[in-house]
């Protein structure tokens, strides 16, 4: 039934179908034209334009001649600037934006791996709990939606306050005998400050997505496993996990892409202190120091994200787009959940392609 | 179908602890369940609670660690709206409301067309278009900031009152979200009604407008809330493309300055954060059922 979501034709009496389908093609195209116009102007055109820009030189003083140059073709020099750390003829001196590329790259990967891992584990636990029968489920669901509804900028400021030197977090740590931490400036605490805020904000969402997957599992499967004497752990690994795998993978894909472009939290919470400058922050800092290098860097970020997305879809079992009925598919019959979670996971990006989280 | 979209759906017995089997196991299960539920509720509420408590706490007691409201005052809210230190929070609220409403209205209008086509019509290139829409939702916003920054600065949009510098990108970023959510909602509707209307001589457009649109209202409404929240919460583009005259709340809060440099006006910021968040939380709580089914739309169809 749900295949309709992606427009599978419903079976109608042949005669009627013919008359109703007439003109569908044209109407369909007409209806998506406005969407395509917006996406072209704001997404496709800038993407192409960024690539064009990235092959031009930034205006500035030419070191060899001492003259001001307007730009011109740069070849791959804007890319080698970041990837090979080349600033002109020499390697980039420490402290320049160029020299921060690998630090930003690795810290972004670190945020992604740690945050998403914690979110999967906690999200799974939350979802299993919420899938049980209990009174007050409306209250619990309302509570869990609150972190999601708070704007990331506010979340960042809230955790900036909670994690302040004199703040409540250090106070609570003091109660168990831990010395206060400089959460927003020391390298490791700063990284974990960002991870804590990110995990707080997005775990509930992961939990709701997994819960939606859990609710699809028919109860008789569990009853059968119980009769067969399966342990709690066996039930989890042999039944729950395989059955929620597809929606889980789609959710993980979207969360991964989301953290890879993390901007709001490090920009506001730590301002990049303690080596927490993410790739997105580096792009933003570079924009005012030279468009063309920034364009190259943003293209690099785009390529990294595209590769990760491709790997997930290719090898991770995150079937994101449901194929049209009748076309080839690897199909184990779980497409319903797939396309499903897609919509859900998209909504998780309430940052709208921005640097949310 | 869609039994699970109903918020009241009885949890399909993941309750593996059958009553009649092991009584001890059952009791342990109950304890674990309630410990888990307590963790979830504290997780969701504690930091937000701390924000609200601090918002009402006298600035002299900023770091008071009492878990209850103490030294209650409304001063922080006055400070938040005070413009004498160069903070324009009140104006920013207005800007965010304008941007949010226009973004939501246009994205919904454009999105409804596309979602209808996606869920109901067959046309050439449909799955390619679907791919483009999905792909653009995965797109790193930061990859667009550089070229858009140049484009908008050439157009002169980065000075003065130019809401469109934010509204147009917001619409584009909100469209994938709008279309996917709406498509999932539309797919669940009783389309037999539409077919009967068309047999009675309505055009597809009329059948949609007169018959289906009223039925789709809850779905439309939920989607609109999601889009509005997305626009309201956006920070990256707002921090780059908004000017003094179009600054949004997220930017205003992030750059809130206190009486002295290097002294963070925590309590005023928490007051501002409360003002920005509480309407959203109320909206989310009131429409909780719809939002949860909207968030997981499609994922819950049986």
From TrEMBL, chain A:
Domain ABC transmembrane type-1: 105-312
Bilayer topology annotation: Multi-pass membrane protein
Keywords: Membrane, Transmembrane, Transmembrane helix, Transport
Stated family: Belongs to the binding-protein-dependent transport system permease family.
GO cellular component, one term: plasma membrane
One Pfam family from the record: BPD_transp_1
Main localization (coarse): membrane
Protein name as catalogued: Putative ABC transporter permease protein
Localization terms from the record: Cell membrane; Membrane
Lineage: Bacteria, Bacillati, Actinomycetota, Actinomycetes, Micrococcales
Organism expressing this protein natively: Nostocoides japonicum T1-X7
TM region(s), chain numbering: 27-52, 104-130, 142-163, 192-214, 235-254, 266-284, 291-313
Example GO BP: transmembrane transport
Protein's UniProt keywords contain Amino-acid biosynthesis: no
TrEMBL record, chain B:
Pfam families from the UniProt entry: BPD_transp_1
Gene Ontology annotations of biological process type: transmembrane transport
Alphabetic keyword roster: Cell membrane, Membrane, Transmembrane, Transmembrane helix, Transport
Main localisation: membrane
Disordered: region residues: 1-21
Domain ABC transmembrane type-1: 93-287
UniProt topology in membrane: Multi-pass membrane protein
Keyword Acyltransferase: no
Gene3D superfamilies (alphabetical): MetI-like
PROSITE patterns reported in the protein's UniProt record: ABC_TM1
Highest taxon in the source lineage: Bacteria
GO cellular component: plasma membrane
Transmembrane segment boundaries: 33-52, 92-115, 127-147, 167-191, 211-232, 266-287
Location(s) in or outside the cell: Cell membrane
Low complexity: bias regions: 1-17
Cell membrane is among the record's keywords: yes
The family this protein is said to belong to: Belongs to the binding-protein-dependent transport system permease family.
Listed name of the protein: Binding-protein-dependent transport systems inner membrane component
Organism: Nostocoides japonicum T1-X7
Organism phylogeny: Bacteria, Bacillati, Actinomycetota, Actinomycetes, Micrococcales
């Amino acid at each position: 039934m749900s295949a309709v979501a992606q427009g599978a034709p419903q079976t109608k009496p042949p005669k009627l179908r013919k008359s109703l389908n007439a003109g569908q093609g044209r109407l369909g195209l007409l209806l998506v034209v406005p969407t395509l116009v917006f996406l072209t102007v704001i997404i496709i055109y800038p993407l192409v334009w960024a690539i064009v820009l990235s092959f031009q030189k930034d205006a500035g003083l030419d070191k060899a001649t001492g003259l001001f140059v307007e730009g011109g073709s740069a070849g791959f020099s804007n890319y080698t600037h970041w990837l090979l750390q080349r600033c002109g003829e020499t390697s980039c001196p420490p402290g320049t934006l160029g020299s921060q590329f690998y630090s930003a790259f690795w810290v972004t990967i670190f945020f992604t791996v740690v945050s998403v891992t914690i979110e999967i584990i906690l999200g799974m636990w939350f979802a299993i709990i919420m899938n049980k029968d209990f009174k007050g489920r409306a209250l619990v669901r309302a509570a869990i939606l609150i972190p999601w509804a708070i704007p990331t900028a506010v979340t960042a400021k809230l955790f900036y306050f909670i994690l302040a030197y004199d703040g409540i977090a250090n106070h609570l740590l003091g109660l168990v005998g831990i010395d206060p931490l400089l959460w927003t400036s020391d390298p490791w605490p700063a990284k974990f400050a960002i991870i804590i805020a990110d995990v707080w904000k997005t775990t509930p969402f992961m939990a709701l997505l997994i819960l939606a997957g859990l609710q699809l599992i028919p109860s008789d499967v569990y009853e059968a496993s119980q009769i067969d004497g399966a342990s709690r752990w066996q039930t989890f690994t042999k039944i729950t996990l395989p059955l929620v795998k597809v929606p889980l993978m789609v959710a993980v894909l979207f969360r991964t892409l989301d953290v890879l472009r993390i901007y709001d939290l490090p920009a506001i919470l730590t301002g990049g202190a303690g080596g927490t400058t993410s790739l997105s922050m580096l792009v933003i800092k570079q924009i005012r120091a030279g468009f063309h290098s920034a364009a190259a860097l943003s293209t690099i970020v785009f390529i990294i994200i595209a590769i990760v997305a491709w790997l997930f879809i290719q090898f991770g079992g995150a079937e994101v787009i449901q194929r049209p009925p009748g076309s080839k598919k690897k199909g184990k019959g779980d497409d319903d959940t797939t396309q499903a979670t897609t919509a859900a996971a998209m909504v998780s990006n309430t940052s709208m392609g921005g640097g949310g989280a | 179908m869609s039994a699970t979209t109903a918020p009241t759906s009885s949890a399909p017995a993941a309750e593996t602890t059958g009553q009649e089997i092991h009584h001890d196991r059952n009791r342990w299960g109950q304890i674990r369940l309630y410990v888990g539920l307590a963790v979830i509720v504290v997780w969701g509420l504690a930091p937000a609670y701390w924000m609200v408590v601090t918002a009402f706490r006298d600035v002299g007691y900023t770091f008071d660690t009492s878990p209850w409201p103490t030294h209650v005052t409304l001063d922080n809210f006055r400070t938040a709206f005070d413009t004498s230190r160069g903070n324009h929070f009140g104006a920013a609220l207005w800007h965010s409301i304008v941007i949010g409403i226009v973004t939501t209205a246009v994205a919904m209008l454009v999105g409804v067309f596309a979602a209808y086509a996606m869920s109901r019509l067959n046309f050439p290139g449909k799955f390619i278009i679907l791919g483009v829409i999905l792909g653009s939702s995965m797109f790193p916003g930061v990859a667009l900031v550089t070229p858009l920054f140049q484009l908008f600065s050439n157009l002169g949009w980065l000075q003065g009152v130019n809401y469109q510098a934010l509204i147009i990108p917001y619409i584009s970023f909100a469209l994938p979200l709008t279309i996917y959510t709406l498509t999932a909602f539309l797919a669940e509707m009783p389309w037999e009604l539409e077919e009967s209307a068309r047999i009675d001589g309505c055009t597809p457009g009329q059948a949609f407008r007169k018959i289906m649109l009223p039925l789709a209202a809850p779905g439309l409404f939920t989607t609109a809330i999601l889009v509005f929240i997305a626009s309201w919460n956006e920070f990256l583009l707002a921090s780059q493309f908004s000017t003094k005259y179009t600054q949004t709340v997220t930017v205003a809060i992030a750059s809130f300055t206190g009486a002295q440099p290097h002294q963070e006006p925590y309590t005023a910021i928490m007051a501002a954060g409360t003002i920005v968040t509480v309407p959203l939380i109320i909206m989310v709580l009131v429409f909780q059922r719809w939002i949860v089914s909207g968030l997981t739309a499609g994922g819950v169809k049986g």
